[in-house]
Amino acid sequence: MFEGLYPKQYMHLAETISAYAVNIHMIDRLKPALQAIAVEHVKSNVQVVQYPKIGMALIEAIEDILGDKATTEFVDAWREAYKFVANILIEMEQELYKSQELINS
Ligand code: HEM
């Protein structure tokens, strides 16, 4: 699980997801942090197709760690939460890729 991710990245991912969980009703508070992540992603050439793989790995990790405590409702809520934050990042990254194309054209 999480092949291809470095330990520092597990921590960043976990920290971001938990910050997101705490601020879920105030998503605007996370926008500057998400914009900074989007910039790092674009520097690493992260692509939309990679998001579902990372999302699956996150859900598997939650299920592995919590075992029976991971109820369907709980896991589904995390699935939704991941999709929501992933969509924000994807949109920000697409804007950044577009502006890169404009600069390079
Ligand atoms: C909702 C989903 C995701 C979240 C919350 C997330 C979060 C983060 C965070 C917090 C960082 C560190 C940024 C920094 O150093 O300032 C990061 C970097 C990075 N992420 Fe993601 N990420 C997500 C999805 C992905 C996906 C789908 C990939 C594709 C494999 C990916 C690959 C990377 C890479 C390559 C880096 C740069 C690592 C480095 O050079 O240190 N991430 N991400």
Concise account of the structure shown:
By secondary structure, the protein is mainly alpha-helical. The protein has 4 helices and no strands.
Q: Could you describe the 3D structure shown?
A:
- The structure is a single chain.
- This protein is mostly helical and 105 residues long.
- It has one domain (7-104): Globin-like (Orthogonal Bundle), CATH 1.10.490.10.
- Helices cover 79% and strands 0% of the residues.
- It has 4 helices and no strands.
- α2 crosses α4 and α3 packs antiparallel against α4 (72-104).
- It is elongated and about 55 Å long.
Give structural attributes.
binds protoporphyrin IX containing FE, mainly alpha, Globin-like
Secondary structure elements and pairings:
Layout: H1 7-22, H2 27-43, H3 50-66, H4 72-104
Helix pairs in contact: 2-4, 3-4
The structure holds protoporphyrin IX containing FE.
Following the backbone from N to C, one meets helices and strands in this order, namely HHHH
How would a crystallographer describe the biggest sheet? none
Q: Total helix count?
A: 4
Radius of gyration: 15 Å
Ends apart, CA distance between termini? 39 Å
Q: Enumerate the spans where pLDDT stays under 50 for 5 or more consecutive residues.
A: none
Bound molecules: protoporphyrin IX containing FE
Question: What's the structural domain tally?
Answer: 1
CATH architecture: Orthogonal Bundle
Structural class computed from helices and strand pairing: mainly alpha
Average the pLDDT over all residues and give the rounded result. Answer: 87
Q: What is the fourth-level CATH superfamily?
A: Globins
Strand segment count: 0
Percent in helix: over 70%
What characteristic shape results from the CA principal axes?
elongated
Q: Give me the CATH fold name.
A: Globin-like
Approximately how much beta-strand content do the residues carry? under 5%
Q: Class in CATH?
A: Mainly Alpha
